[in-house]
Amino acid sequence: MDLNKLTTGDKLIMGGGIAYLICMFLPWYGVDGGGSNSGWDYFLGGVIPLILIAVMVAHIGVTTFTDTEVPEPPVPWNVVHRGVGTTAAVIVLLRLIIGSDVCAFDICFDLDRQFGLFLALIAAVVVAAGGFVRQDSDSAPAGGDTGSAPF
Known about the structure:
This protein is mainly alpha-helical. It has one domain. 57% of the residues lie in helices and 11% in strands. It has four helices and five strands; from the N terminus they run H-E-E-H-H-E-E-E-H. It has helices spanning 8-23, 43-65, 77-98, 115-139; strands spanning 27-30, 36-38, 101-104, 107-110, 112-113. The strands form two sheets. The chain has a three-stranded antiparallel beta sheet.
């Protein structure tokens, strides 16, 4: 496996994906001196972004390190990566903004946000940035031509 085949955007996506997976095991919400919830406790705000990121990482791995032909979608793959990465980051951001509460016997209290959620948001933003870097690197004109007039 030659990691030199990876572009900067690919490295950001894969590194952010690994970091996000690690963050899924860290505490996202909890109470002082009590238990905590990890990313695995939040399907929409934790597991769905993980699935989206895993699909991006799998696509990069298959297309970079194997000879397998992947079908072309209606839009270029770089646009798909940008959109999927951004979607994952927005979902995790909403998980941070909305918060989490617990109710029992008509008593409700808000759980405190823990460091794992903030790290997961950073990892998801890195994945989204990788999608944008990947998009920009393929849309740049070849040969350094900026498309401007010669005069």
